[in-house]
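DATA SHEET
Item: assembly model
Revision: 1
Owner: S.N.
Input lines:
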Amino acid sequence: MTDTNIETRAGQERLKQAGVLPVPEPDELTAPYWQASGRDELRLMTCTSCGQLRHPPSVTCPYCGSQEASWERVSGDGTVYSFIIDHRLMVPGFDEPYVVAQVNPIEAEHDTVRIVANIKGCDPSAVYIGMPVEVFFEQRGPARLPQFRPRLDQK
Amino acid sequence: MTRTANPTAFVGCGYTDVTRHPAKSEIDLGVEACARAAEDAGLEPGDLDGINIQVHHYPPPDTGEIVARLGMHEVKWTEDGGIGVTAIARAADAVARGRCDRVVVCKIMNTVAPVLTPLIDPDTGRVGGQAQFDVPYGLGYTMQGIGLTTRRWMHRYKITSEQVGWLCTTQREHARLNPHAVLHDPLTLDEYLASRWIADPVRLLDCDYPVNGAYAYVMTRVDAARDLRHPPVLLLSWAESSHDQMAYNNLPEELGDGPTGWLSEIYRDAGIGPDELDVWMLYDGFSFFAMQWMESLGLVPRGESGSYVEGGRRIGIDGEHPVNTHGGQLSEGRLHGAGHILEAVQQLRGNAGARQANKADHAVVTTSFPNTGAAAILARSN
């Protein structure tokens, strides 16, 4: 919404031509998430007061207001809450149609806990709401990105 | 927030030509639209003493230059920004509190300025903030986020693409009767369904059409509006969400089950219910919004907007409740809510010509997303 965006758009064109994929830049609040994924673990911020998981990380628990939280490891199994198949390909580094999904971890009580990821390992047309998926990790620059693929075995 | 004390009214409408590509500067467009709005009200630009200019980028054009070129003598109130109904709210509040007497509100659209672009470091590709969880996965644009909420909504309520298509084709029929609209070619359901994917389930023809142009309107107190050229159109009520961002990722699935929460204020303050709203000017930055607004406003039962729009008859010019009779942003062009406001005013005046609804005593106008937007009820004055 600022004139900086115009420069950023030109910058994105450079990234696009170079085929550079975006890389997450952790901050104080989010670093434990990315440190865990660097070890191929999926850990989610968990309220130590009410026990609810939340994602993305936030200072305050949206359910009880507590600011005390820990990072609990989850199984990495989930279900697809919603998804798109992107054909417009505006984000740098994405050059063929791809799925962006919101995944509900099976441990989360609320379906507002939604992890954004690509669904890989199947044709985009095979993805559906409610589809069981499992996490895997993908190298992206210095980061390991949690990603999801169809969960075939019902554990 | 809502206001009904010191009722205000719409007394003039001003339009520039709307074009696909830039033909004039933003200042030129703003001056032209404001001058025409004053003229339509039967006023001189020098009679205006308040002004609001809206653009969607920074820095904005110099409002002082627009004021000077218009020939406004004394500006008692000026405040830029807002969109659609939220700009009505600011202007009406300024008039109601006596800050100014006759305010012109103007939306200027410019396709050269980008709408929203994710902030990616152009050298390293790094993305911080909340976007660090989205953009690395290729999620960074509004239409993608809308695709996520839309698929869930369509899934939950069994809304079909064909039903959404009926909204789009009906609005195109309306645009064909609107000389201001940029899209006049007929649109069939098959053409809608064949339009290319942007972010499945979002098709190209679900997205509003970027244009250049400016729309303006003049508001004043109702008691000062009676002697002007047109019968005043009354602002009965308005309300806006306190949400200030287009966050979609953690929104609860219910986009407001019926007119609850802040939306219920428009009915409380207007003293009428959803069944008394004759014409519906529902924001359609994306086609789905207009349908979700029907549900959130309680105009149709939750989840039943699809069956309501199917076939197009109920929402056509001669239907039960004509929807977006100007063609909406899908077919008239993306005026960020101003087109809906001006069309409601024309309908309630009875000036909509070939697009005139059979009954137009009350209109509802909405802006932006059904969960984070704003809504107003307007009424004819006689």
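QC remark: The two ends of chain A are 46 Å apart (CA to CA).
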